[in-house]
Amino acid sequence: MVPPLLSVTLVFRPRPEFDGMADIISSVSAYADSSVEQPLHKACKFGSVALLDRIWSSTADLEPSGWGLWSVRKLLRTHKLYGKLQFTLCLLEAAKINSVDIARWLFERFPYGVRRKVICEAAKAGALEILQFFRANGTTIRNEAEQQDEDEEWDEEKENWERGRYIRFGGLDAAEAALAGHDDVVKWLYATYKETEERRNDDSAMRAAFSVGNVELAEWIMAEVGFEVQGYLALHKAAGAGLVETLQWFQDKGTYTECDAGALILAAEDGQLKVVQWMLDRDRKDDKLKNGDVAGPEYGHRARSTFITCLGGEASLAIHSAAVNGHLEVAKLLHANIDKPRNQAEKEAEKRRRRKRIHELSNYFDLGFRPRDVVREVSGETMMLAAERGFLDVVKWLYTEYHADPSMALFWVRGQVDEYGYSEKIDAYSDVQSVFCSVVDAAAGNGHLEIVRYLLHVGGGKAEDERAPKRQRTDTYPELRDCYKMPGRAEQR
């Protein structure tokens, strides 16, 4: 029987006419006590075992004269599936607040197993005591007992589990702990692995350590598991996070050039100026790199044989990534260091190499963690996205640096602008004129008044009118060369 609320007891205490009427006091208390109506996992957020006891022991709606046919507490006792759900949700809350008392209370009342998502949440929270409690009060699933599909939930009924409460360690638990900076949890997980042999994603754990700049922990894991990290993803994450020390580790180990393709673009995209500068400096000191189209066995496992700043190199593509994300200083640094074509032959070579580089890098980025279209050269689309996102300083810089290029249209871009923003995808039934959209419209549609004013100002000069035929890029779309619907300078104003 749940004792009445203290507040209710105090209300009835000065009224002697209710002496001996405990049922009335209990009924009023049950009516006033809304805490027992909340789901168990929400109550766990308070970290109070007393509150859980009150909810669990409250039986007013379970008695024959209860207030209705359904309640959360009835569901908890009568439906096994709901009980499983609440058990897992409650453990997740216990892990977040690192409450062993809550975990112990749940273990005393529910016989269910601990799923991997709970282990990962506890590892991320640094809840070492809870993990140790799980290890001591359950049966760890070993490698041979697990399903091959990493993402599929393991179910004790489906697998005919008959060896007591299962605890599913492994997977990304060490990686989650490493990302959150809980070295003690990572080392404990690997120390106890010798006894349990659960399946763990060691490569992800090493990458996680590298991605937060914890080289010491990454080296410890490598020594523990007996193999080295697959550098591609680890290096890319480090570049995007601005971790020069991690990149230097790969350089010192001699594996940097095996997996650095695309890293500069990610660093530029995230505005990591120090990383970009480090990459440019490292490249200049590499005496095995060339400027031209060269390849051969002497380059071994290198991801590239040319400088990132050569004609059509990765640095020229990284400018777009920096600009559309508002990182002007990074864009300026890259633009100042890339090689520029000096004649027509070099212009053709630049186009050829750039197409090849875009194709190669797109394959790198098509591995599931970044979209392919992150690899772009500077174009009208760069101006479009910068204007749409409100980067006035970037818009001004792009116009200053590129408006004199007769092959680049900065005010009109192939694609469409709607309530969702700019998209390069075009309706198959669109007419010729509607396949182009205005950069000014994109800026105006997102409320960037200063950008609209600037674009209208620089787009209204005489020099711009004189260059108009060249700026329409009819060489790229020959079917539009003689079309009267092609956007002209009057429309751009």
From TrEMBL:
<dbReference type="InterPro" id="IPR036770">
    <property type="entry name" value="Ankyrin_rpt-contain_sf"/>
</dbReference>
<protein>
    <submittedName>
        <fullName>Uncharacterized protein</fullName>
    </submittedName>
</protein>
<dbReference type="InterPro" id="IPR052050">
    <property type="entry name" value="SecEffector_AnkRepeat"/>
</dbReference>
<dbReference type="InterPro" id="IPR002110">
    <property type="entry name" value="Ankyrin_rpt"/>
</dbReference>
